Amino acid sequence: MINPKAYLTEKLFQDDIEKVPTRNGYGEGLVQAGEENTQVVVLCADLTESTRSEAFQKKFPERFIEVGVAEQNMASLAAGMALAGKIPFISSYATFSPGRNNEQIRTTIAINNVNVKIAGAHAGVSVGPDGATHQALEDIALMRVMPRMNVIYPCDALEAKKATLAAARMKGPVYLRFARAGTPQFTTEKTPFQIGKAEVFHEGKDVTIVACGPLVYEALLAAQQLEGEGISVEVINNHTIKPLDQNTILESVQKTKALVTVEEHQIAGGMGSAVVEMLAQRFPVPVEMVGIKDRFGESGEPSELWDAFELSCPHIMQAVQKVIKRKIA
Amino acid sequence: MKKEYSTKDLEKKANEIRQDIIRMLVKAGSGHSAGPLGMADVFTALYFNVLKHDSKRPDWEERDRLILSNGHICPVRYAAMAHAGYFPIQELDTFRKFGSRLQGHPERERLPGLETTSGPLGSGLSQASGIAYVGKHIDKTTWRVYCVMSDGEQEAGQTWEAAMFAGKNRLDNLCAIIDRNNIQIDGFTEDVMPLESLKAKYEAFNWHVLEVDGHNIEGIVDACNQAKAIHQKPTVFICHTIPGKGVSFMENDFKWHGAPPGVSNMPGEPAKEDQVGIALKELRTLQGKIISEHE
Ligand SMILES: Cc1ncc(C[n+]2csc(CCOP(=O)(O)OP(=O)(O)O)c2C)c(N)n1
Ligand SMILES: [Mg+2]
Hints:
The structure holds 2 protein chains of 2 kinds.
Chain A: E1 19-20, H1 22-36, E2 40-44, H2 54-59, E3 64-66, H3 71-83, E4 87-93, H4 95-100, H5 102-111, E5 117-121, H6 139-144, E6 150-152, H7 157-169, E7 174-177, E8 183-184, E9 199-202, E10 207-211, H8 215-228, E11 233-237, E12 240-242, H9 246-256, E13 259-266, H10 271-282, E14 287-292, H11 302-308, H12 313-328
Parallel strand pairs in A: 2-3, 2-4, 4-5, 5-7, 6-7, 10-11, 10-13, 13-14
Antiparallel strand pairs in A: 1-8, 6-12, 9-11
Chain B: H1 7-28, H2 34-38, H3 40-50, E1 65-68, H4 74-83, H5 124-138, E2 145-150, H6 157-168, E3 174-180, H7 189-192, H8 198-204, E4 208-213, H9 217-228, E5 235-240, H10 272-284
Parallel strand pairs in B: 1-2, 2-3, 3-5, 4-5
The complex binds thiamine diphosphate (TPP) and magnesium ion (MG).
């Protein structure tokens, strides 16, 4: 059953649910963050329109800095601006930032412990036709193993906006992960969002699904269909991969005693790994992991790739059925 | 044996390649227009005159190596390779589609003849320099290395790390070709991040620099021959091109960097339904200079 306290849209399972890319929420969040705090500055490396930094550039041209195709420079320029008191957001594609500029982020942002926010757009295979080089599938792993880094992966555009604002309001380095393709807008203004607090979107007792990003919606579809088959599934939107909300996840898994993790990222080192590392120490249960299985992406249409890489609703349903069998055995 | 092409043949070939670029972009529904159209003459000169290569033996040890650093202009490389016999021209229709060998950005593991994988900008010159170093200093080979780059990626620090290495190591078997089309995504390069004087910069890094007209095929071939005669220095062409060359509404307009024709209505551009027809007609008629019997 949908958790009424999640305040998800009434259109949740309707075909005409609006589809919006999460990067749009980043763009809107930046503008509001800029209005709230004059210290917010935005840097971009020749991707102003597609990272949706454009709205901020138009509104606050004096606080927008174009650095050219130079992501490594951008990370450390931002570190410098943070040392000078600003709250810089750096915008690019996730493969380049935090991919290419990883060491600059490590030393000049994280070890330095400065207030820089890293926005990685075009994460996941759903980038589509651009192919493997542009589909970030390792960025969560890169960022979540970095001390001091906070890692947030919103499930839809509205949550992306809330996450951007929350990142601006908190002190310290944050990685925000966004997608290119339009995905269902299913949370509402009233849906709770707090960094470090996972939310139960669908209540159940047989299996827990912990998901993040736009695939949370696919997990909800799976939960709804499985309910029809008599399987009661709890779905947790784990938007903050670090710091991990251990209590919410633990509480659910202690009840269901089986776990499926779902993410558009390598299984190795991703959100699911973070959850499983924690549970292995505190409450081991059978686990199935939905994610990218140690391969690179490729060209194709987003939904076609979700299917080909076995990430969408039917594959989540299969994982649930599999984990239930293991639970009984 | 290698076929000799006249300049006229090559110009015709470049035009066919441009038309194929438009067709592949339309089929794909996404991809980059400006860079590929701008570089069609260079790729024609390379594949049909300059390069020592054999389309039937893509891993022939003696071949010249062509590294494409700015991978997003791959439509021009794919089209040139198809015309040169690496694969059937029909396969161009699969560009950017699921399962295709012609990925949105080139992947060497998928298509023989590509030499390397690119898309993320700024790493081509390093790879080309690594290959050239082996050729010149370790294995003492006769083949040459060509590296096509964009002007936008001159902003990437790695480009200059490689330039310094190639200069230090006197890689005279390396010829870099910069697509100096003055555009990138966010605008004109000189607004986004000024690059001039590119010539003085490369000279300061111990390179031989030639300014080349990127739409004069004979001139491109001549420059490649000249570069062969330069000793103890790598050569770079600052290759002046018109982005979107051959399609008037795309020329010199950075909006067409990453947009295909026929997909969206843009202010000041022909309606999307008309874009493809206009583009192909302009290419067929050399922007109205010739009138074919079929018009
Ligand atoms: C490292 C990296 N950063 C950003 C991008 C995104 N990007 C793709 S093309 C491009 C524009 C660069 O300008 P140029 O290559 O001169 O473009 P063109 O002349 O072909 O339009 C950018 C920023 C990228 N591919 N790689
Ligand atoms: Mg350019």
